[in-house]
Amino acid sequence: MNEDDATNYVLQQGWVVDPASRMLTVKKQTIVTEQKLDATKLQRLTEFVFHLEH
Length: 54
What we know:
Elements: H1 3-12, E1 16-18, E2 23-25, H2 39-53
Antiparallel strand pairs: 1-2
Keywords: Cytoplasm
InterPro entries: COP9_CSN8
Organism: Lithocarpus litseifolius
């Protein structure tokens, strides 16, 4: 990977390249998670917690 390819990759990741110092700043990417709890999962979790407590 040459310097131009590396720079393009870095920019695609949303990172910032300072051309003067040739340093890059990495930004933490946000992780999008979607929680879906249906009634059966909630019931199973409740039963499991009840089992652990007694």
